[in-house]
Amino acid sequence: MKTRLFLFLLIGGFISVSLILGGCKQKKPMQVRQIPLEDFFKNPEKARYQISPDGKHFSFMAPYEKRMNLFVQEIGKDSAIRLTSEKDRDIAGYFWKNPNRIVFLKDTGGDENFKLYGVDIDGSDLKCFTDFPKVRTEIIDDLYEFPDELIIGLNKRNPEVFDPFRLNIVTGEMKQLAENPGNIQGWILDHDGKLRAAIAIVDGVNTQLLYREKESDPFKPVLTTSFKESLTPLMFTFDNKNVYATSNLGRDKSAVVIFDIANGKELEVLYENKDYDVSDVTWSRTKKVLVCANYESWKQERYFFDQEGKQIFDNIQKHLGNYSFNITSLTKNEDKFMVRAYSDRSLGGYFVYDRAADQLQKVADIAPWLREDELAEMLPVEYTARDSTKIQGYLTLPVGYTMENAKDLPVIVNPHGGPWARDGWYFNPEIQFLANRGFAILQMNFRGSTGYGKAFWEKSFKQWGLTMQDDITDGTQWLIDKGIANPKKIALYGGSYGGYATLQGLVREPDLYAAGVDYVGVSNLFTFMKTIPPYWKPMLDMMYEMVGNPQSDSAQFVSTSPALNSEKIKTPLFVAQGKNDPRVNIEESNQIVDALKKRGIVVEYMVKDNEGHGFHNEENRFDFYRVMEKFLEKHLK
Hints:
Elements: E1 17-19, H1 37-41, E2 47-51, E3 57-64, E4 67-74, E5 80-82, E6 93-98, E7 101-106, E8 115-120, E9 127-128, E10 137-141, E11 149-154, E12 163-168, E13 174-176, E14 184-189, E15 195-202, E16 206-211, E17 220-226, E18 231-236, E19 243-247, E20 255-260, E21 265-271, E22 278-284, E23 289-296, E24 300-304, H2 307-320, E25 324-330, E26 336-343, E27 346-354, E28 359-365, E29 378-384, E30 390-396, E31 409-413, H3 429-436, E32 440-445, H4 454-458, H5 467-482, E33 485-495, H6 497-508, E34 515-519, H7 525-530, H8 540-546, H9 554-560, E35 573-578, H10 586-598, E36 603-608, H11 618-636
Parallel strand pairs: 31-32, 31-33, 33-34, 34-35, 35-36
Antiparallel strand pairs: 1-29, 2-3, 3-4, 4-5, 6-7, 7-8, 8-9, 10-11, 11-12, 12-13, 14-15, 15-16, 16-17, 18-19, 19-20, 20-21, 22-23, 23-24, 25-26, 26-27, 27-28, 29-30, 30-32
C-alpha cells in the first residue's frame, strides 16, 4: 500500500576517516579509455522490466523518437509490441493492473502534473483517465486483488490537497471515496479494498492517525504525535485488524512494529536495527506473511522473518554472485519474479527467476556498451565532522587509484539533493562519468540525511547553510589533509538542495573551491518559501521548523541565502535550470546569475524550456553534461 506521507524532497542525499570496505589491492594508476559522454547519459536500450500477473508477458520501456515508451513482449517470442508513441516526454512510470491492461503516468514539460493513462497489451483502448488541466494524479493504492480498479488521488477540487477516488481502468468510471478536509496527507486501505485509515497534519506540525472500523463510520483520531516522530502504516495485517508500520515512537531508529490501530498503541516490535532506520517491508500475498525488513547501511540489506522467503532471496543471490538486486515484479501466484541486478560499476540487467526450477534467465542488459572493468568502485567512508558528528559517505577514485596511491587529484565534492534523502551504493552515471574524466568524487550523507535515525535527522533543522554546510566543508578539508585532493583543483557540484549547498559553499568558502556547478538549486530562502508547489502548503509550518521561518528567522535567511550574499562569490559558476520547475522556481537561478553577471564573475547559464526539476529529455542531458565537462576542464585541469 502506498500513502502520501510528507518527506520534503527538493529533487524525486572531515577530521578523521576510516575505510569501511577493506581488502583493496594496491594498484598503479593506469591509462583508461575516455568513454563517450553519451554512453553514460543516453537512454538505455531497454529498462524498467516487469512481468505480467499471469507470467505470459513482460513489459519494458525503450526509446522511440528519443523518448522512453512502453513495450510488451510475449515470453518466448523475439518481437515486442510498442504500446505508446510519446515524442515530447518520457513516460514517468507504469505498472501492470491485470494480465491485459497496463497503466502509466506522464507529465508535460516537467510540470509534475502527472496524468494517468491505461492501455491494453495489444496497444488498443489507450485512454487518459485524468485529463484535467493543472491537476496532479497520485497512486494511493494499486488494489492488487481487484484487477480492474485502483485508488488514485487528485488535487482537482483544491490544488493543495488530494481527494481519493476509486477508478475503473476499463470503463474510466471514477467514484470519490472521501473529501479531504484540507489536512490529510495519506490514505490507507485494507486488504478488502476498504478505505479505513488516514494520516493528517494538525496544527501545522503534528501528525495524526485517523481510523474507522467501516467505511460508513466517521474517521476518528487514534494517535497524535509531533511530526518529528513517525508512525508510518505500511499495510493492514492480513486479518485487517491491526497494521504493520515503521515507527520511531520512543526510539531513535525506525523499527517494524505491529500497531493496534483501533486503540492507537504499539503491540509488538518485529525488528529494530541499532544503527539504521528500517525503511519498509517485503511480504508474500499468497502466503500472507512478512518476508523481510529492508534497511540501508552502506549497501542495501534485509532482515528475514520468513525462512521460505529467505531461501528464494538466497537462491537468487547465489545466481548473481556479488551483484545487489531488487525484485521489480512477480506473478500473481508468485512462481516467477522479475529481478533487477546492479552494482556500483554496472547498471546491470533484468532476469526472470523461475522459483520451482531455481533458474535465473537473463532478459536484457540495460547498458551493454559500458564495461565494468573501465568503471570505478565506490568506496564507503566514515568521517568525523568538527562537532564530532559521525558522517558516512562514498569516495570514488579514478580507475587504477586506491586510498594508498591517490595523491593530488582534481576533486568534485557532490552533496546530494533532498536534503532529507541520502546517497547510496549503486550505479550513478554522473559519478562514473566524472571518474572517467580523471576526477575523484566525494559524496557525503551530511546531517539530516535519511536512514540514520531521528536525532541525526533533527540535527539538520534550521541548519541550511550552517552545520549542514560544515559537513561538506569538513569533507573537502579532509581530502586536502589526506593528500588526495589538489587544493587548487576542487569543485562543488550538486542538484536541488545540492545546488543550494554549492552556492552556499562558494559564499562561505570563496578560496576553497576553484569552480561550482549549480543544477536547479535554491539561491534565496525567502523567495523559495513563497514559490513552493501548492500541495506543499499544508506542510508549511513543518517547513518553518525544518528550514526556518522567513519572518522570525529572517536574519538567518539573509545570512544563508546565496543570492543575498553574492558579493562574496568570486569562483566561476555554471548554472542549469528547467523553465517549468515546480519545486525550485526559475527565479532562484535568475537571481544568482544576474547578481554575479553584474559583478563580472564568470557565470555560464543554461535554461531548458521543456524541462522541470532536472533534465529528463536525452538531448538536454547531453547538452548539460557537455557544457559541464568543458567548464570543469577549463577551471580544474
